[in-house]
Amino acid sequence: MYEGLCRAAESEPSMRMLHRARVAEVGQDEAGAWARTDDGRRFGADLLIGADGHRSLVRRAVAPGRPDAEFAGYALWLGVAQERDLSFAGRWPGGLDIRDSGDHVLLGYPLASADGSTEPGERRLGWAWYDGTRNALFRRLGAVRGSVSHHSLRATDLDADVRDGLAREAASRWPRPWRDAIADSVARADFVGTPIAEYVPEHLACGRMLLVGDAAHVPTPMTGRGFGTSLDDAEALARHLRDVDADCVPGALLAHEAERLGPARSLVLSGKGFSSSFSRSA
Fold this sequence. Notes:
The protein has helices at residues 2-10, 58-62, 135-140, 160-173, 178-187, 226-241, 249-278; strands at 23-28, 33-37, 42-45, 48-50, 70-82, 97-101, 104-111, 124-131, 144-145, 148-149, 153-154, 191-198, 205-206, 209-211. The chain has two domains: 2-69 and 199-278, FAD/NAD(P)-binding domain (3-Layer(bba) Sandwich), CATH 3.50.50.60; 70-196, D-Amino Acid Oxidase, Chain A, domain 2, CATH 3.30.9.60. With 282 residues, it is α+β, with helices and mostly antiparallel strands. It has seven helices and 14 strands.
């Protein structure tokens, strides 16, 4: 998806993409907004849209009183396995499979191959394991600091005994073919663990700056609506900015906030019921 979006953006003559450019600072005045990269370059415009994820830098300027998404008290392990690498010979899953086991929830889902093939032997299995028992691990490795989720962990960040423990637990907790897929991902050290964060916004706009996507609202993935809500953000923003001149940008961004703040808050709050019942003391 990322590659597809990049190709679409690069095909637009009015868009310029800067790869491997890290924004270090953002700001604004009455005339415009700007972003400065860590190599000292400064880029100015009539407005600045923060679509920079759950650890948003722009959010610190838009909502300085509440800049951080908070750790929800549990983690999510994610991986994908190739059908040809699995010894499973049973019935292939026909759709999403959800398994609940106390402090653990597993979502398993069949996937086509990378080139779209659904032929037997070419397919894949994706798995998402919600884990409410390993918060101390994420804290020890710095992925969670205080009440803030900082970053994901790659399989190679984990000691062998941690990886082996995940494989053993999968074998005893989950049915086939999901335990096979997890065992394969663990054996290849090709999976990630993410401490789940949540952020209920109070503001989306400030002057000439605006938050969209995960910068604006961070729900648990269990809602299944984060991507769709982000698309709605983009559609609404395009509509509010259509035919707007530079002087009217702040008003247009406030109109966007008036439309999208309610849905953004509802999205995150809809997942907090699951989080509060599932999470452990962090």
